[in-house]
Amino acid sequence: xxxxxxxxxxxxxxxxxxxHRTAALKEKGITPCLGLILVGEEPAGISYVAxxxxxxxxxxxxxxxxxxxxxxxxxEILTHVVRLNRDPRIHGILVQxxxxxxxxxxxxxxxxxxxxxxxxxxxxxxxxxxLGKPGFLPCTPHGVLVLLEEIKIPVAGAHVVIVGRSxxxxxxxxxxxxxxxxxxxxxxxxxxxxxxxRHTCQADILVAAAGKAGLITADMVKExxxxxxxxxxxxxxxxxxxxxxxxxxxxxxxxxxxxxxxTPVPGGVGPMTVAxxxxxxxxxxxxxxxxxxxxxxxxxxxxx
Length: 304
Ligand code: GUN
Description:
By secondary structure, the protein is α/β, with parallel strands linked by helices. It has two domains: 30-117, Leucine Dehydrogenase, chain A, domain 1 (Rossmann fold), CATH 3.40.50; 139-270, Rossmann fold (3-Layer(aba) Sandwich). It is 39% helix and 16% strand. It is globular and about 55 Å long. The relative contact order is 0.17. The model has no long low-confidence stretch (mean pLDDT 96). It binds guanine.
């Protein structure tokens, strides 16, 4: 039976670290502040943004909340991004994804000042990640790596199989794992993969990030594998107050019987995403202080 990895516990540690670094910056007169843009009224987006704002506040930071209607134009979103770019009180910018279909996400992301790109989605950040240069790391992939580090899972030399090739998780996570200092061997599987089970069964570390409830069943997992479930799927459930429950991409009970470690959903990777965002916002504020000679001595992106 697998050990269940308590993401909330490890996230709490990282949030405390963010709070300490925030307190030090505030002594120098800088309060880290995140500009958050949410388009539309999708319940999932609203609840993610609320969780991020609550965590920022608890760590002593601030947020500037911009809510736009679902039918907003690309130009209007860009106007808000440019305003946040120019505002010296804003240190990080986050545009909650996905955006409605009529908006070109890549155009919006490319408009964000790379120095404020705390999501790590800007092409400059992606380039730095691929090249192994300092820069903002995307929060979920970074959170996965930190979790493995915290529970002391040997990653160097391990075969990591990632199911899912999204720009937010699958692709950047693969890039992180193959960095020289991490040194894993990576297979990426996706909807075009012929025999998914053949690949997943070879994983020492299996990361499910496909966004498909119950995709990973016990027969697809090697005995003793570490299973990281990044999926967050809403399943309707009449017996709950909200009318739905959250579930990952992994058939949890059956896979837990076979794995050595497993992350639950909720309470696994999700809390780590928020914690890593807080650290990126503090780093962005510290870099702003450095660049403006405000007397705060911090290395560039010291959380990376
Ligand atoms: N949607 C799902 N995950 C994320 C994330 O990490 N950042 C943003 N901006 N949107 C998301």
